[in-house]
Amino acid sequence: MIDHSILIHACLIHGNGKGSPFSLEDIQNWQSDHDLLWIHLDSNHQDAMGWLEKTFNLNPITCEALSDESTRPRSVVTEDGMMIILRAVNHNPDQDPEDMVAIRMLFGENFIVTTRYRRVLVSQEIKELLLSGHGPKTKGDFLTTLLERITDRMGEVILDLDDCTDEMEENVETADPLELQTKISDIRRSAIHLRRYIAPQRDALSKLITDRIDWIQDSDRTRIREVAERTARFVQDIESARDRALISQEEIKSRISNQMNKAIYILSIITAIFLPLTLLTGLLGINVSGIPGAENKWAFLIVTFGLIIIAVMIIAIFKRIKWL
User: Fold this and answer.
1) What is the rounded distance in angstroms from the CA atom of residue 83 to the CA atom of residue 234?
2) How far apart are CA 267 and CA 190, in angstroms?
3) Which domain range does residue 309 map to?
4) Which of 37, 167, 237, 267 could form a disulfide with 111 if both were Cys (CB 3.0 to 4.6 A apart)?
């Protein structure tokens, strides 16, 4: 008995922008014709890859690649068809967008298989387009539509990252350094996570453009080239945000260092002023006989005024040698 939970959804793409929902039973009875079958599977299910291998007679290595949880973006031609692995920003609830989710695709002769571990919104969007009659018509159209929607959502996250970096740079001279340090750490962490997958995705898209794949038409290749250029710009924007955050961090360190140096300088000046005064008061405070003025009732005031005069003279000397 097949567990229906392995299938997230499936559609029969008719070639005119329309798609019909398909069930597991429909897939089992499906006969290859002019229509294109799209199957979206849940890789979390332990039986999903076994069912896929048996139903479409796929190589176990291909199925293993389609279920690899930690894979990076790439495109490769296998004996079962073109396998493409991409990353999309994470829009799942309570998740960080930069924690990108993977979508794995296999383009066979007359079918498309996509798999995921975590929910990918673009697959649901393409399904809705097909059911409304405005979906992709061919395998190449399916791929480019998915790429464009992944890139659009990615652009929103990159724009937010860029805005956060701009705001951080504007406040670098006035905001609390500790608060800015936290923001800079967040920006750098986001940039590192995003670049980890977007840079390989850029290379995978460039490979799709250069590889002569018969089902990717010239119009599809033009759209893929545009997506690849946008992805390359995203990588540049991410690197720019990371570098700007690093520069701001150095400015904050310099600002904190200057504040500390200024404080140490003031303390040093105070110490230099009061050091001789402390020496004199220490000598006059020893408990031995013969201290001058011990019996004079004006001695305390005289010593006090004398210490003040000495302090003023020290300050005047410091100003003359430009220490103050």
Assistant:
1) 24
2) 41
3) 264-320
4) 37
